[in-house]
Write the structure tokens for this entry.
Amino acid sequence: MPFEIHKAGLRDYNGRVGFNSVFKYVNHSSRDEAWGIYCIDAGAVEIKPGEAYPYQADRHPPKYTQNWEKGRILNEFQFLYIVRGEGIFRTREEEKRLHEGSFIVLVPGAWHWYRPRLETGWTEYWVGFDGDYPKMLREYGFLGPGPKILDPGLHESIVGHFNRVIDGVVGERPGYQQVISSLVPLVYAEVSAYASRPSIEEHGKDLFDRVTVIFEANIQGKMDMESLASELNFNYATFREEFKSYTGLSPYQYFLQMKINRAKELLMDGGLSVKEISYKLAFDNPYYFSRLFKKKTGMAPSQWNGIETAEE
């Protein structure tokens, strides 16, 4: 697997298969800051077994490598993705082993230290960034509060995102900051999805399949979620938590979304009025249905198919 990832995802900047270590620190403008997220540095580095770390330390600004063995504190966010080799990561609270597929999230103001094992070396990708958007993500718990390790595994698509960021940093073409900084949330979204998928799929897929079949069979009626949980041999709190961890929605909200999706189909058919669809799908009344439909879709049900649909 490492060799396949290496050949598929790691390349030098002449387009040849292989690996050419590269990193760069870039400037940003007030316009870049207004975008909400901007890149500060990015790189892809191969550390061979026995080689010194950090890679070419004298070419980095001192704040990144000064007193490296004692740890450091950054004033920016960083993502670090290990695609080959092994190493170690430390915070003030703990020490963790790193391996192929490990993904480190670093946040401003947090002490940390890491390095590859001398026996194995490693290949790392990283990007440093800042802005109002990542600060908001940290505030809401997506990027923090402190450093953390995720385990998405090895994925060519994640390496591809990093390669596109590095291409932009190296090339510095007009408008590159907006392009490459927009890739950073995509990296994290994909990493988070891969990291959470094994545990969620293991426990949630069977439950999801069973519940959605029941929902589909009762799409024209109403459902009591606590009764459904009992029927499936769950207490309601556990049922709700496991279903939401898999779908991102509570069972009731997922059922409502299925009803809205069915309403879209009926509206596109054009054979029923808004009122008739409301009653067909067991909404309490047409007013509630119209208000919910607009909240979920951004437009009134009478406007959904591009032709005014009768309310009555």
